[in-house]
Amino acid sequence: MARKKIATSALSVAEIVIRADAGTIKAALEARLKTDELLVEREQAYRRIAELEAQIEELMGEPGVFVYPEPPLPVAGFKTAAKSEKAATPSPTAKTAANKTATPAQ
Q1: I need a labelling partner for 104 at 20 to 30 A (CA). Which of 1, 43, 62, 87 fits?
Q2: Exposure class string for 28-66: b at 16+ Cβ within 10 A, else e
Q3: Tens digit of pLDDT for each residue in 27-63?
């Protein structure tokens, strides 16, 4: 009897529920365990970043003085949130133009 090949591509919830053979469930469990390991590693990296930023603030002597550059790589969708936030915030020239056209309250 020929053995059925186990899919090595991304597993969807529907595949796991519908196919539900032992190989698929095992692959899903292994993927989940690896994901959990990577999330722990990610949390450690964020803690290290927080420590570095605290050291920078300590060197500057005052929090909020140092302007951090954008991260060199996109981070889990935060990059798109930063872009949309920038788009929603009017530029200084737009603020100046708006102030010139507004009439002062008397």
Answers
A1: 87
A2: beeeeeeeeeeeeeeeeeeeeeeeeeeeeeeeeeeeeee
A3: 888 999 999 999 999 999 999 999 999 999 999 988 8
Q: What angle do CA 28, 34, 36 make, to 5 degrees?
A: 105
Distances in whole angstroms, Cα of residue 5 to Cα of each of 2, 14, 21, 26, 103? 9, 18, 11, 13, 74
Distance CA 12, CA 19 (A): 11
DSSP 8-state assignment for residue 20: -
User: Which tokens hold the place of 87?
Assistant: 């788009």
Spatial separation of the C-alpha atoms in residues 16 and 13, rounded to whole Å = 5
Q: What is the pTM of this model?
A: 0.52
Distance of alpha carbon 12 from alpha carbon 105, whole angstroms:
60
For residues 41 and 12, give the distance between their C-alpha atoms in angstroms, rounded to a whole number: 24
Quote the DSSP letter at residue 103: P
